[in-house]
């Protein structure tokens, strides 16, 4: 769990910005979004394969240019 403590002479906006950075860096939101729905292992493997193919194609296109 991400926690931040208010520093002396720190505004609420700065505190909130620091908290958001900490949450983003810890990956809490991405984990929550990913686990929002159940995904079977076969479905997860299929999604990863599609992502991998997209990545390979993109790298090939970049290498051609």
Polypeptide structure, described:
With 65 residues, the chain is mainly α. It folds into two domains: 1-34; 37-65. The protein is built from three helices and no strands. The radius of gyration is 19 Å and the shape is elongated.
What attributes characterize this protein structure?
65 residues, 3 helices, 2 domains, elongated, 0% strand, mainly alpha, single chain
Any chance you could write out the topology, listing elements then pairs?
Layout: H1 12-26, H2 28-34, H3 41-64
Helical proportion, percent range: over 70%
Instruction: Summarize the main sheet.
Output: none
Round the Cα radius of gyration to an integer and report it.
Answer: 19 Å
Spell the H/E element sequence: HHH
Mean pLDDT: 93
Q: How many β-strand stretches? A: 0
Structural class comes to mainly alpha
Instruction: Give the low-confidence spans.
Output: none
With helices defined by DSSP (H or I, 4 residues minimum), what is the helix count?
3
How far apart the termini lie comes to 44 Å
> How many separate domains make up the residues?
2
The amount of beta strand, in percent, is: under 5%
Oligomer: single chain
Estimate the global geometry from the Cα principal axes.
Answer: elongated
In short:
With 65 residues, this protein is mostly helical.
């Amino acid at each position: 769990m991400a926690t931040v403590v208010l520093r002396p002479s720190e505004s609420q906006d700065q505190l909130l910005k620091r908290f958001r950075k900490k949450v983003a860096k810890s990956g809490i939101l991405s984990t929550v979004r990913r686990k929002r729905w159940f995904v079977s292992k076969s479905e997860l493997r299929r999604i990863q394969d599609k992502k991998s193919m997209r990545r390979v194609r993109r790298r090939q296109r970049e290498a051609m240019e």
